[in-house]
């Protein structure tokens, strides 16, 4: 899908965009009842896609960090387990 901006003035906090859709996507849009606000539908779809893509990238970074630092984290747990087993001096 291609997006092109237009030089039209924004109305009520919205900006107009022209999109090129694949024929099968255009057919799906054409099948929607007239009561469906297509602008709201497209807005919600884009917002959800961006939000989910951001979450997926964050999950990936967390997984990579966990893998890269697994040995360090295990060492820290072993150290604190030993302290816990003996008893902390402040108890």
Describe this structure in words.
- This protein is mainly alpha-helical and 91 residues long.
- It has one domain.
- The protein has three helices and two strands, in the order E-E-H-H-H.
- The chain has a two-stranded antiparallel ribbon.
What's the arrangement of secondary structure elements?
Blueprint lengths: L1 E4 L11 E4 L2 H8 L7 H31 L1 H17 L5
Oligomeric status of the shown chains? single chain
Residue windows where pLDDT falls under 50 for at least 5 positions: none
Strand order of the largest sheet: 1-2
Strand content: 5-15%
Largest sheet report: 2 strands, antiparallel
What is the rounded distance between the termini?
64 Å
In short:
With 91 residues, this protein is mainly α. The chain has helices at residues 23-30, 38-68, 70-86; strands at 2-5, 17-20.
Structure characteristics:
single chain, 91 residues, two-stranded antiparallel sheet, 3 helices
